[in-house]
Amino acid sequence: MRESTQSNKRRGVSIEDQLSPKFFGDTRELCRRQSPAADGILVVACSDFPGDPFCLFGNPDNVYVLQNPGNLVEDAHDDRLEDGNQIELILKLWSISQIVVCGHVPCRYVVDFLTRQPSCDRLDSDVTRMAEGFAVDANQRSRPRVEENVAKRHLLSQLVKLVNYPSVRVELDAGRLRLHGVLHCLNGLCLYDAQLRRFLRFRD
Ligand SMILES: [Zn+2]
Hints:
Blueprint (H helix, E strand, L loop, with lengths): L1 H9 L4 H4 L8 H5 L8 E7 L16 E6 L17 H8 L2 E9 L3 H9 L8 H12 L6 H21 L2 H9 L3 E8 L2 E6 L4 E4 L3
Parallel strand pairs: 1-2, 1-3, 3-4
Antiparallel strand pairs: 4-5, 5-6
Helix pairs in contact: 6-7
Bound molecules: zinc ion.
């Protein structure tokens, strides 16, 4: 799947192009949720995400959380292998109707990427360009803005990985599964609007 994403990139297909609005659910509705969902919600969140990811969407019943540094979505596993990865296993064992990728700023993972540029996801050349701009900004006055932009691009690239899971794609196309992108910023939550192709502030 990494190959197909990279070939998309070579053909000039943007991250936003790969995130069709039909794959996304109503994130505002999800954030306002008070009662338990009939079906499960899978949350992929950063290890140092502020607050409890179980409680982001009202009632924590039927919420499954995967946390790792940088809210990374694993690559889809090779179909020839018998065992799937964690996400595929959760989708197989529980009835999941929504997957939410939760990032945040400031995030140590993003700062680490900006300062050292380790083996972070290079799915999006925009991120690399932003990091280069960050490095030459001696005063670093734009640092918070760059950090936020990189966190957004990084989050979207994780959603693209999900779309490229064969098992997820089948469910998305059938309308049985919906995606959400949520970024916790200093002044509140930002939700990805796939129609407008940008993050919007969430005001309850
Ligand atoms: Zn983090």
